[in-house]
Every structure is written in C-alpha cells, then in structure tokens.
C-alpha cells in the first residue's frame, strides 16, 4: 500500500556504508552491505540506478558440481549463523511473505533477464549487527539464481512494482524511505569508486543528499532534465568521445552524437558499432564473438599502460545546445583495464568494457563511466547532475549536503513569501484600509435598514389604529368628528412616533388586512379587483356622513373637518369615514379622548 507522502525537516541524508571490498566477475566494483530478513542475512550488493526492487542471490545460484567452491562468497553472500550463507534462505527469516515467481527484466533490451522469487521482507541498509542501519519492513525482495545477476542489487529507481497476484502496485524502496521520512527527499548521489585510484577508493552512496568532497561542480551549475520515457529517465546526449595519447595518437571516436541511458546495473558502455570499431583501432582491441566482449592481450596492455591514454566523453542535455551546457568526463586507461572471469572464462581475462549495440535501444553508459563520474539524481525536481569525480590525496572528511524535498521547499517559500519589508507593510496597510471601509459600509447599511424597519412599523401601526377607530366609532357613542392633522409618522394622539424594540415587529405585519366596516354589505374580495391606494398622508375635506345604521343615529355630527385619508379598498375618492380610536397602538390600552 502506498504511504502518504510526507517530509520531515529533522530527517538527514543517509550514507550507505560500503562493504570495504571490491567484488564482481566483470571488474572490481566497490560493493555496499545490506541485510535482509529477521534475523538479518548480510549481502554485498551493487547499486542499480534503474531497479526499484532489492535483489539478492539464493542457494540455487551456486551448484557444487558446476560452480567454484567459494561461489556464494563470490556472489556477495556473507556469514550467517556462524557459517557461510549459501544464499538468501527464506526459511530462516520470520518476516518473509511470498508473492510468487516473476521475471527480472531491468535491461530487457540488453538481454539482462532472469526469473526471481519475489516476496516481502525487512531490508536494512547496513550490516545486521549495526542497530543504527536504516531499515524498512515489508519491502519487495527478489531472490535470483541466474549468473547474469552475479551480485545482488540495491535499488535506486523510483518505479513501482506490480504483480498479478496483488491488487495494487508497490512503491520502490527509495520512495518508501522518503514517504516514511527516513530520508529528507526522493534523491540520491552515487559514484562507483575506483580501485585503481590512490590506495583504492571505495564507492560513495548518499540517500537524500550528496558528498560535496567527491566531485568538481560544473562552472555554470548545469544539470540534465529527465527523459519523458519513464524507463530512460537518466538519458544524456553523447556529443563526442575523444581519445588522447592512444596507440594512434589523438583520435575522435565518434562521427556524430547519440543519446544514451546511464544505468549502473550493467558494467560496460554500450556504443554504436561504428564507435566500437574506432575503439578497436585506438586501443588495439580484439573482438571475441563467442562472448561479444573486447579482449586485450598482454602486449597491447603493456603498451597502453606505458602510454597511459585518456578518454574524454562529452555529455550534453540537448544535441542542439552542446556549446554551453555540457559536462566532460575524463577516464584514464586504468578505468577500462578490467578482468572478466567465471562464467565467461574459466580464468580471469583482461577485457575492455565496451559492447556493440545493435540499435539505439541498447545505448547504455554503465558502471565504468561512474568510476570517474559523480551522479546526483533528484526525482522530485526531475533532473540530475553528472560531474567529474575527484580523488584528492588524502581524501578529505565527507561533507554531506542535504537535498531538501521540493514540497518542503515550496512550503517554506510560501510561508516566508520572499517579499521585502516595504511590500509586506504596504500590503498590511492596504488590508487595514479595506477592512475599515468594509466595517463602515456594514454599520451604515445596518443603520439604514433599522430606520427603514422603524418607518414601515410606524406606517403599519397608524394603519391598524385608523382601521380600529373606524370600527369603534361605529359601535359607540364617542365623538369621532375631530381628527388631528398628521404631518408624518406619529401616534394617533399627535405625539412623535417612538421607535419600538424589534421584538414588537411581529405584532404589526405590513400585509395585515384592514378591518371592514360593519355598515358595509358583505362582499367577496379579490386581489385582482383592488384599485390604487390613496396616499397615506394625503389630506382631504369631506362632509360627515349620516349614520348608516340605527347604532350610529345618536352620533353628534355637524360641519366638516379635515381628516387623514387612510388606505381604502375602494381606491381614490372614497367617502368612507376615518375615525380616531381611543386605543393606543403602543400600549394596547384604552385611553379617554
């Protein structure tokens, strides 16, 4: 299961300890020590820039009737339970969980394939006896017997693994180390080491950082971009290969540029056939068709040692930008002075590590190049650096530099924003002014809204009071002939309207229907028959009407006086009498007139 990606500022780069030995059947390669299982079984392995799976040999990889007696030790198996381990013993680990048998095809184009026994187990980057070794449980481990994978592999690739027996893909070891915050970022740095340098220089492998003492940085900080092909991320352009002080002097070995993939899984440089032919001429090589290897006889070897030729490989990011952004890697003849042994030859035989590529899918730069080059890969930023390795005498103490996670760097930048003090102050002032105007607008609109509610409330109260007075005057003997002239919202007694608390608003709804006079004949009202409403404060003069029922016959009425024309269902020009009530709309109590 994939873990949620997290970063931890406290995590530091991890330096994988070298085994202090040089191993291999195709050269002398500086190996690194890991342990697999519970309890841990120690193995010496080589870093693979392409693999995402830890690979170790199994007991079936060494046969007593076919292989040398020390085969398990030659293939990287160390002592386990006080005896030479024949290979990874799944029965001796309590944390093993089998997945099944699948093919290992890291370099299928180069025919580097083999069946492997896959399962989950604990992997520690260091010997089992070292409790400080970085370790992770439930990592994919492949046990391999085929001699094509003579030594086990420590995975530096980021590609996930998928199996038909599992429902989901499994992240690589490096990705899980980053996700579990055991390393600061998804990155690494690696140089293969050089046995021929000084008194033997071991390889250097740093996860989540690099050692600044092991390489010479490019003057312009040049780096390579990842390829768009996930299987060929570390692709470089080989612009030229120049041989100096060779058997024929200085010679350009290439007539044009081509792209190659850096892959430490394989030892050789896989080059176009025409380039290999130029190598034959410059170094006096002999091609062996039975092994597809270039051999060096003793006579030629002595001549090359005497001349000490050098090879300069110019690497570029783009074939169109080879004049400014490039890296030169210089390799002495000693970097190519290797020996190949069992199973290719019964005895160690000198060979020159170049191979003929059938087509451009086989163009690969292997471990031979990384003896003199320092590779830094940053998966998060999708770039890598390949610089010239250095070998000062004596070698200085390591200076490990952290490669921070891109996510952590983005969070830091967003937190600090990188703005100047003046800009920050200006933004703060602008926000303060904006906040002030927002608050002012809020309170201003709120005050207007309150006043509007109060005004509507007053109108509703006046309307209700007038309608109530009309009913009261029709049913009582009160003198309703006098109505006060109103000049605006006010109490019926003429006093100015007092603003009510908002809790009374619900008692006087603006859409409340006016009472109907008891003198009117009952009729059905229809909303669509209503005419225009007389303005509330329009003053009219009209004669008092005689009583329209026996109950109003004693009403004293003569003359006319101004009255306030309230809204009427009859529209403009209504002669309906409006009478002031003796009930206060503010208190609901009857008050004498």
Automatic annotation (TrEMBL):
<feature type="compositionally biased region" description="Polar residues">
    <location>
        <begin position="552"/>
        <end position="567"/>
    </location>
</feature>
<dbReference type="InterPro" id="IPR021109">
    <property type="entry name" value="Peptidase_aspartic_dom_sf"/>
</dbReference>
<feature type="region of interest" description="Disordered">
    <location>
        <begin position="511"/>
        <end position="593"/>
    </location>
</feature>
<dbReference type="GO" id="GO:0000324">
    <property type="term" value="C:fungal-type vacuole"/>
</dbReference>
<feature type="region of interest" description="Disordered">
    <location>
        <begin position="1"/>
        <end position="20"/>
    </location>
</feature>
<dbReference type="InterPro" id="IPR034164">
    <property type="entry name" value="Pepsin-like_dom"/>
</dbReference>
<dbReference type="GO" id="GO:0004190">
    <property type="term" value="F:aspartic-type endopeptidase activity"/>
</dbReference>
<protein>
    <submittedName>
        <fullName>Aspartic peptidase domain-containing protein</fullName>
    </submittedName>
</protein>
<keyword id="KW-1133">Transmembrane helix</keyword>
<dbReference type="Pfam" id="PF00026">
    <property type="entry name" value="Asp"/>
</dbReference>
<keyword id="KW-0472">Membrane</keyword>
<dbReference type="GO" id="GO:0006508">
    <property type="term" value="P:proteolysis"/>
</dbReference>
<comment type="similarity">
    <text>Belongs to the peptidase A1 family.</text>
</comment>
<keyword id="KW-0812">Transmembrane</keyword>
<dbReference type="InterPro" id="IPR001461">
    <property type="entry name" value="Aspartic_peptidase_A1"/>
</dbReference>
<dbReference type="InterPro" id="IPR033121">
    <property type="entry name" value="PEPTIDASE_A1"/>
</dbReference>
<feature type="domain" description="Peptidase A1">
    <location>
        <begin position="30"/>
        <end position="387"/>
    </location>
</feature>
<feature type="transmembrane region" description="Helical">
    <location>
        <begin position="424"/>
        <end position="445"/>
    </location>
</feature>
